[in-house]
Amino acid sequence: xxxxxxxxxxxxxxxxxxxxxxxxxxxxxxxxxxxxxxxxxxxxxxxxxxxxxxxxxxxxxxxxxxxxxxxxxxxxxxxxxxxxxxxxxxxxxxxxxxxxxxxxxxxxxxxxxxxxxxxxxxxxxxxxxxxxxxxxxxxxxxxxxxxxxxxxxxxxxxxxxxxxxxxxxxxxxxxxxxxxxxxxxxxxxxxxxxxxxxxxxxxxxxxxxxxxxxxxxxxxxxxxxxxxxxxxxxxxxxxxxx
Length: 242
Description:
10 helices, globular, single chain, eight-stranded mixed sheet, Rossmann fold
């Protein structure tokens, strides 16, 4: 990866070799991403997860990395240059095409967008990406509160005969910047009856959101699993406890 030690997101990687608070998410993606998958990394930042998923596909897949913030995008592009399966899309994600203003924070992983006709960056939808790069097998969404808008722009993708796995973040304080939607409202954007939703705990286990979490502490990460792919959850949990 290309790092810039003026950025705290890079110094953490240099010090620990990972983001310590996201180890469970690393383990999940490393297990469920397979060769030949098409994966969308929505909110790719500097490319940590794009690289992790590139390794998981063994270079035999398509990783679409979407990022609007200039400082993160500069590093993401340099990293992707040496990994051709990673395709960089410079833009924000939303429920409809248009434009957004950038609110780039000192800490790159806290940057947000504001949707605006006067914005300086293009907004694309997940359905746009599917038309351009192919139907995804997995979508990872971490966009600092705009997750609801991202899923609203994926109606066609979620209605596909082979719907994707969706790993998304939900933090109420981030969602407040986009109207203060709830987790229930976010889940309701998924095709009714087509998905089961699980919450990831810090011991790298998946628990249904309507059941107790067990021994692990809950993270802010959730996995929406098509009913036809529930065996992948069982396999992941079995692998992590064996």
